Amino acid sequence: MLNVTVATWIGNAAAVLSGTWGAVTRRAQQSGYSRTAVYTHAQRVVHAVVREQAGGISYDALWHENERLKAENEALWQAWSEAEALSEAKQRAFAGSGCAMGLSLSQIVTLLAIVLPWGAVPSRAMVGRWVQAAAAQAGRLLVVLDLACQARVRVLCLDEIFLHRAPVLMAIEPHSMAWMAGQRGPDRSGESWRAVITNWPCLEHVIADGGQGLARGVKLVHAARCAQGEASETVSRQAMTMGLDVFHTQRELERVVQRQWKQAERQLDTASQADAKVERYKRQGRDPRGVSGVAGRAWHKAEVLFDQAVNAQEAVHQIAAALSWFDTQGRLSGRQTAQAQLDEASQQLQGDCWSKVKRLLSDERTLSHLDRLHAHLTSAVSEPVLRDA
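The structure corresponding to this sequence follows.
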């Protein structure tokens, strides 16, 4: 049927529909088709015209829809064939990667059940053995990678986090934000930190809080390096320095300031309640002089606490500016100028609640980041005039 030309279809239909006597016979002789075929062609042409005029789905639309369904069917069969061909090696790789991303064994089995036939889904115990084997293989590879990366680490940020009261000694490389260590315990003493820090023989600077265990660990590693002397070329001969991170200092500042604001708010509520009591006494015709004195003292204390909180908030802003890299004029900050600003702001912090903050601000390690900045700048640009420019 597809070999019949459009002109032949139309000519056969015209011979039948013309109604002229003998037209069908003459058309059959001219076209080479039988009279039955000519009538069949005419009937199909009529049906095609009727369908086109009825406003239904056109032939082109049906053809495009058919092609789309064929492509979708082929894609589904391809996906199914790949799912059936998911080898055990790929399943092992899937299980290892999923566990590394934090998925549990049950979640891995559930995901495998989506892409595998039900009878081919591995058990949870099997997935556990795959993950254990992948962990062992990765552990052997990580030993080699650690040796290659340890010599490149120059600066580390150290701190402890706690999981069920057990300390985890953490180390982060600040430039790449790479997680370098996460040792669980046994404690956070200097000896434990020394075992962590020793893994980086070229470490030059440590950024941490003011914890005594961390400081002792750095001192122990530095002393061990000095004792080794020139014996090993892989160990950095440069003195290991330590600086206090700005995060803990600012967090302690915000903690105390919030406490002072809460004290001021509570005292304001107390003073307001005392005023309400005075008004109640007046309405009842009672002598308000006693409660008026209490209200006056409450308001005086509220004003004092409010002023302290305002002064502390201003000091916090001044301290934050002193700890930043640039001053208010956009120039690089220096130790002398920044320390003078810290001393001035510390004088506004009154009370025993600021003792820890003052101790941190007076510690020379607080501004070590500025010292390292200017040291690196000096090594990069030795000429003072060019460096200032």
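The beta strands are 155-163, 166-173, 178-184, 205-208, 241-244.
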